[in-house]
Amino acid sequence: MQGDELKRWRGAERARLVAAREALDPRTLESWRHRIDRHLEDGFSGLSRGALAFCWPIRGEYDARHLARTLRERGALTALPAIVAKGQPLVFREWHAGVPLATGPLGIPYPIASQAVLPDHVLLPMNGWDESGYRLGYGAGYFDRTLAALQKRPLVIGVSYEIARLPTIHPQDWDIPMDWVVTERGVYRRDPSGLVFAGPAAGR
């Protein structure tokens, strides 16, 4: 699948998956958030060291702010992405409670004046994810562009729900797979053959 056909297919799948996520009741979302927090804390001890970038949640996405506050208390430097220009790589800026925020595209807040950060780890929300670890985002390509531009690639953990799993997103040359995927079920490791379920947590 290529070109306009791929764009139409991805657009339809994105709309379907976001609608399914938004239809979930708040209690379910909160339960899944706690499970994902636990999988990340138990499975990736390195998140409390270095710089951690995450995304402000929208439209029922996993809310990483709770975990980010916990990890910051343990010594992590936490950051949010900011769009500096259309079609350009993102910049990550330090975030903590009280940092001034502005509202960017899709209504997503971002820090406006805090220092730029080069992340060691990225928690990346996914509208959809496939059996090879590829992510279906919002279609603008910002994260693929950003990851490709970084001199040192961070560890990228895609975060989503089991209901968003797809056989394939029909990845293209510019699509970058996740290193790991974490859902309410547990942790998936990306191997050359595709994603492998590693269990609820495995102390990484």
What would you say this structure looks like, in words?
Helix content is 27%, strand content 25%. The protein has 204 residues and is α/β, with parallel strands linked by helices. It has one domain: NagB/RpiA/CoA transferase-like (Rossmann fold, 3-Layer(aba) Sandwich), CATH 3.40.50. The strands form 3 sheets. It has an 8-stranded mixed β-sheet. A 3-stranded mixed β-sheet has the order 8-7-10, with helices on one face. A two-stranded antiparallel ribbon has the order 4-5. Strand 1 (51-53), helix 3 (65-73) and strand 2 form a beta-alpha-beta unit. The chain starts with a helix and ends in a 5-residue tail after the last strand. The model has no long low-confidence stretch (mean pLDDT 93).
Topology:
Elements: H1 3-22, H2 26-43, E1 51-53, H3 65-73, E2 77-82, E3 91-94, E4 101-103, E5 109-111, E6 121-125, E7 128-130, E8 135-136, H4 142-149, E9 155-159, E10 165-166, E11 180-182, E12 187-191, E13 194-199
Parallel strand pairs: 1-2, 1-6, 6-9, 7-10, 9-11
Antiparallel strand pairs: 2-3, 4-5, 7-8, 11-12, 12-13
Question: Would you kindly provide a brief summary of this structure?
Answer:
The protein has 204 residues and is of the alpha/beta class. The chain has helices at residues 3-22, 26-43, 65-73, 142-149, and strands spanning 51-53, 77-82, 91-94, 101-103, 109-111, 121-125, 128-130, 135-136, 155-159, 165-166, 180-182, 187-191, 194-199.
Assigned CATH class: Alpha Beta
CATH topology: Rossmann fold
User: SS-based structural class?
Assistant: alpha/beta
CATH homologous superfamily title: NagB/RpiA/CoA transferase-like
How much of the polypeptide forms β-strand, as a percent range? 15-25%
Number of helices: 4
Number of extended strands: 13
- CATH architecture, by name, is 3-Layer(aba) Sandwich
Largest sheet properties:
8 strands, mixed
- How many domains in all? 1
Biggest sheet strand order reads 3-2-1-6-9-11-12-13
The whole-angstrom Rg is 16 Å
Distance between the termini: 36 Å
Can you give the helix content as a percent range? 25-40%
Which overall shape is indicated by the principal axes computed on the Cα atoms? globular
The average pLDDT is: 93
Order of helix and strand elements from N to C terminus: HHEHEEEEEEEHEEEEE
Low-confidence stretches: none
